Amino acid sequence: MKLVGSRTSPYVRKVRVMLAERGIPFEFIEESAWNADTTVPRYNPLNKVPALVLDDGTPIYDSGVITEYVDAISGGSFMPREPVARAKARTFEALGDGIADAGITCFLERKREAARQDPAWIRRQLDKVDAGIAALSRALGDRAFLGGSEPNVGDIACACALFWAEFRMPEIGWRDSHPELKRWAERMESRASFAATRPG
């Protein structure tokens, strides 16, 4: 198997963490969709990462599809089998991806020339990030993980999103404003899968 993507992408990191947690070997093809000579469209016509290339050459994308596939082939438990619990885990995965979506949109807008930036658009994206972080904090409460005593795919997605925000937009300062998320994040960071996939 080959994984195509950037080391700094929170979506790629989510898949890398899942593969590490399940002990699945893969070849990592580091590639940015933003380079003029990018090869990403060979694997995903939408020119987005990650893409997972199976041993027979079949590519699958996006990150949510890949995490479901990885969990299924490894007999894992990051996606609960019981329908309601599974829906909740996938909803938290969507929350993490949504925080990342809004954060990246804001990050890219800020990279435009100052005169072309839209402050209202930036504020709208930051409001989404803040709302997502607040929702995550409420959902976590005093539990160790979103799924209870063990992390699930929602924990992985949300952690990757928040760690990306911390890396690219440190002014958000979510650890200071949400101490329960700080404790949860430290538990996630202590896992070998997260230590091995730090960006930068």
> What is the rounded Rg?
17 Å
User: Helicity, in percent?
Assistant: 40-55%
Question: H/E element string?
Answer: EHEEEHHHHHHH
Structural class: alpha+beta
- Measured by DSSP, the beta-strand proportion falls in 5-15%
CATH architecture assignment of the largest domain: Up-down Bundle
Major beta sheet, strand line-up: 2-1-3-4
Assembly state (oligomeric):
single chain
Look at the structure and give the mean pLDDT. 96
- What's the CATH C level of the largest domain? Mainly Alpha
CATH topology of the largest domain: Glutathione S-transferase Yfyf (Class Pi), Chain A, domain 2
Query: Judging from the principal axes of the Cα atoms, what is the shape?
Result: globular
**Given the structure, what is the number of helices?**
8
Poorly predicted parts: none
- Overall structural domain count: 2
Please tell me about this protein's structure:
It contains eight helices and four strands; from the N terminus they run E-H-E-E-E-H-H-H-H-H-H-H. The protein is α+β, with helices and mostly antiparallel strands and 200 residues long. It has a four-stranded mixed beta sheet. 34% of the residues are buried.
Which helices and strands appear, and what pairs or packs with what?
Elements: E1 2-5, H1 10-22, E2 27-30, E3 51-53, E4 59-60, H2 63-73, H3 83-110, H4 119-140, H5 153-168, H6 174-177, H7 179-189, H8 192-195
Parallel strand pairs: 1-2
Antiparallel strand pairs: 1-3, 3-4
